[in-house]
Amino acid sequence: MGYLSNSQRACSWWSSLMRATLLLLCLFVLSSPQSPAITTSTATSLVGNNSKSVSDHSALISFKSHIYDDPYGALSSWDNKSLHFCQWQGVTCGSRHPERVIALDLPSLGLSGTISPSIANLAFLRRLSLQHNKLDGSIPQELGHLHQLQLLNLSVNFLEGQIPSSLANCRHLSWIHLGDNLLSGQVPQELGSLPQLIDLVLPTNNLTGAMPTSLANLSSLDNLDLSHNMITGGIPPWVANLTSVTRLFLGLNPLSGGIPSSLCRLPSLARLDVPENQLSGMIPPCLYNLTSIRILSVGFNSLGGIIPSDIGSTLPHLRYLDMLGNHFIGLIPSSLSNSSGLLRIRFQSNNLHGKIPRNLGTLQNLSILGLSENQLTAKEADDWSFLTALTNCSKLTKLEIGNNSLSGVLPNTSPQISRSSIFRRTRYLEACLQI
Ligand SMILES: *[C@@H]1O[C@H](CO)[C@@H](O)[C@H](O)[C@H]1NC(C)=O
Ligand SMILES: *[C@@H]1O[C@H](CO)[C@@H](O)[C@H](O)[C@H]1NC(C)=O
Ligand SMILES: *[C@@H]1O[C@H](CO)[C@@H](O)[C@H](O)[C@H]1NC(C)=O
Ligand SMILES: *[C@@H]1O[C@H](CO)[C@@H](O)[C@H](O)[C@H]1NC(C)=O
Ligand SMILES: *[C@@H]1O[C@H](CO)[C@@H](O)[C@H](O)[C@H]1NC(C)=O
Ligand SMILES: *[C@@H]1O[C@H](CO)[C@@H](O)[C@H](O)[C@H]1NC(C)=O
Ligand SMILES: *[C@@H]1O[C@H](CO)[C@@H](O)[C@H](O)[C@H]1NC(C)=O
Ligand SMILES: *[C@@H]1O[C@H](CO)[C@@H](O)[C@H](O)[C@H]1NC(C)=O
Ligand SMILES: *[C@@H]1O[C@H](CO)[C@@H](O)[C@H](O)[C@H]1NC(C)=O
Ligand SMILES: *[C@@H]1O[C@H](CO)[C@@H](O)[C@H](O)[C@H]1NC(C)=O
Ligand SMILES: *[C@@H]1O[C@H](CO)[C@@H](O)[C@H](O)[C@H]1NC(C)=O
């Protein structure tokens, strides 16, 4: 009995670890976005006159004056009188306008301070990358004067206040990354008027209110990430208007209501990530037909219904299937073996019954299989054949099958299995086996 309670502790420890992992995984994408290349050809409407470079110089000086801690001396070249400001670290000037700053890239330098509003005088600026520093204060609304700005990355700082609606004046903005800050207020509805917006990435802030309807205008949007905020309301049906979207991250919010079936009209949707909301109802059946889906992550909601028996054939490109912590019923579809690229299946804490399909053992890349806390059964020795089959999954590292109705004897081959690599690889197997 002591062994049993130990194992229970181990498993519940693992399930909290899993929640933490889920949180982390929200931030990663399987198919990473192509790194944005700044186009350099659109300056036709601009006057090729370098006399304004004086103001670029003073804007940079003002930027530096607002930085009070520069632990790695990143800005020391900015004091070197024998260097032109175009040679200062992090500063890039244009080739057509050789004395105008087109990019300011100072990421991950431990800079503390605020963002000087004077930066708005860098009229040719296309890229502002200040991510992963210790900047605080607010995002200056003056940034709206940067009419050439294409990329704004202020992620991972301590910026607070609201997202300035003036950013809607930066007509060329394609990438807005403001995640991991302390931003509050609503997502400005004005951002819905940015015709070239590709990434709107605002996770892990304190944003409130519903998703503004104006975002439905963003026909170029590829990646919408509002996860880990305080976004309320539901997943609006108009997300179907985001016809270019491939990734939707809306997890860890208090979103309620159902998953709209209009999502099925998104032909390129590869990742639907909505864990840890208060979503209820069924997953729209047509979503199980959306062949583009690679990651379906709906864990820790109040969703229900039967997982379709042919899911593995209708979603052939699945990598992650996370449905844990819901009310799903029915059998574990054996067709999952047809979705041969599956890396992770997490069905824990649902109401699934029946036997564990042995052909899951054909998933050669399967790394995590979580089935605990369901009503899965095993009585006959043959019901345990899934375990033998899983020894073929050479990448399996976590197998959780505790708190089901698995009884009887382990397969005859169990001595071989316990000597085989599966027991060495699946650290949690023994801890989670409760028979
Ligand atoms: C099994 O259920 C018990 C009681 O609900 C719980 O304390 C334990 O953490 C569960 N174990 C697993 C492996 O889920
Ligand atoms: C640049 O602008 C200044 C003042 O606006 C003007 O005097 C000068 O002639 C211009 N130079 C060129 C090359 O256009
Ligand atoms: C200033 O820059 C020049 C040219 O790169 C360099 O030779 C010189 O050592 C720098 N001076 C200081 C004080 O860093
Ligand atoms: C923005 O910065 C974050 C944090 O360092 C990084 O993960 C992301 O790739 C950056 N995005 C762009 C478009 O530069
Ligand atoms: C969204 O588009 C509609 C028509 O396409 C337009 O009337 C509306 O002003 C746009 N909203 C925003 C916020 O740009
Ligand atoms: C988030 O916003 C809410 C409502 O505006 C506020 O009560 C709360 O203190 C904020 N939390 C943080 C961490 O800023
Ligand atoms: C979404 O697109 C449809 C069809 O193009 C249009 O009728 C509808 O007004 C759009 N919804 C929003 C909220 O813009
Ligand atoms: C899924 O696709 C199949 C084949 O195209 C079709 O027969 C079925 O009706 C679709 N199901 C839903 C719910 O769209
Ligand atoms: C896998 O897909 C094939 C072809 O669609 C189908 O005949 C077979 O029954 C599927 N396997 C399972 C286990 O569903
Ligand atoms: C398994 O993973 C490897 C390495 O990532 C990949 O090359 C292979 O195609 C995957 N197998 C399947 C069936 O997807
Ligand atoms: C494991 O894979 C081998 C080779 O593909 C196959 O012959 C064997 O039947 C598989 N074992 C199980 C238990 O599925």
UniProtKB/TrEMBL annotation:
GO cellular component terms given for this protein: membrane
UniProt keyword terms in alphabetical order: Glycoprotein, Leucine-rich repeat, Membrane, Repeat, Signal, Transmembrane, Transmembrane helix
Cleaved signal peptide residues: 1-33
Superkingdom per UniProt: Eukaryota
Topology versus the membrane: Single-pass membrane protein
Residues of the Leucine-rich repeat-containing N-terminal plant-type domain: 55-93
Compartments in which it is found: Cell envelope; Membrane
Family classification: Belongs to the polygalacturonase-inhibiting protein family.
Designated name of the protein: Receptor kinase-like protein Xa21
Species for this entry: Phoenix dactylifera (Date palm)
